[in-house]
Specification:
single chain, alpha/beta, Rossmann fold, 8-stranded mixed β-sheet, 11 helices, AB_hydrolase_sf, hydrolase, 3-oxoadipate enol-lactonase activity
């Protein structure tokens, strides 16, 4: 099946998006500081039954960069506008990893009529602690001063499990290359946006769409206990734990994650 890369003007920037397959729409939102390519195994699998829409968010991949701060709400508004341009009329199943999950909460808040279900991978609902905010702002400073190369390798132990790093070193190498190819201003803008993101932990019981939460058993950024707690508060959520993988579960264990997603989508 064909996969198209389209450049679309969205809210004043050029947004690159991969569109593949036919059927009910599934919107896949990548993590930080990556691009739609992190979802390639899911795109390949899901396009057999679904229309898969996988954009590069503002500041990443082939999309335009905004200098300053890009809020999670801004990313959500970009996605809504993109769906309008692509003439997607029916509510989407939105899958988001990490930062993509933060954007998913905003999408639910502002565009509930466009949302059918959620797939939340390795993410959380609360805002950053003071320490978390400070760490993000330190990274902003480092990236703007020394470029993405200064942070790329250091991020890998937080993104991938020990097992993945040892058994599939090419995953880490590909992630490093992806991060290093990202513009410093794009990284800084979304990092600032994450530092000031809203706290959705008190709203979870109001999110009444079906939801699948996916978490790596060795995820140190958003451990299973964090995601299980989120799942427990959402009326129609279930949590799927993937063994021996870290924060990038869809990339580290695509077979298992694809199977869980396929089963969930069938139930929707």
């Amino acid at each position: 099946m064909s996969q198209q890369l389209i450049d679309q003007s969205v809210n004043g920037i050029r947004m690159r998006v991969c569109v593949a397959g036919e059927g009910p729409p599934v919107l896949l939102v990548h993590g930080f500081p990556l691009s739609h390519r992190m979802w390639q195994a899911q795109i390949d699998h899901l396009q057999q039954q679904y229309t898969v829409i996988a954009p590069d968010l503002r500041g990443f991949g082939g999309s335009g960069v905004t200098v300053g701060t890009v809020s999670m709400e801004q990313h959500a508004r970009d996605l809504s506008e993109l769906l309008d341009h692509l003439e997607i009329k029916e509510p989407v199943i939105l899958g988001g990893l990490s930062m993509g999950g933060y954007i998913a909460w905003e999408f639910w808040k502002h565009f509930p009529e466009k949302l059918k279900a959620l797939i939340l991978c390795d993410t959380r609902a609360d805002a950053d602690s003071e320490e978390g905010v400070n760490n993000r702002l330190k990274m902003v400073e480092l990236v703007l001063r020394h470029g993405p190369q200064a942070v790329a390798s250091a991020m890998i132990p937080n993104l991938l499990s020990v097992t993945s790093r040892e058994q599939s070193p090419e995953i880490g190498q590909n992630l490093i290359a992806e991060i290093e190819s990202t513009e410093a201003e794009g990284i800084a803008a979304s990092q600032r946006g994450m530092a000031e993101r809203s706290d959705f932990s008190g709203m979870l019981e109001r999110i009444e769409v079906p939801a699948l939460l996916v978490v790596g058993s060795e995820d140190i950024l958003t451990p299973p206990a964090v995601m299980q707690a989120v799942s427990a508060q959402m009326p129609q959520a279930s949590c799927f734990e993937v063994s021996q993988v870290g924060h990038m579960a869809p990339l580290e264990a695509p077979g298992q994650v694809n199977q869980a997603i396929e089963k969930f989508l069938a139930s929707c």
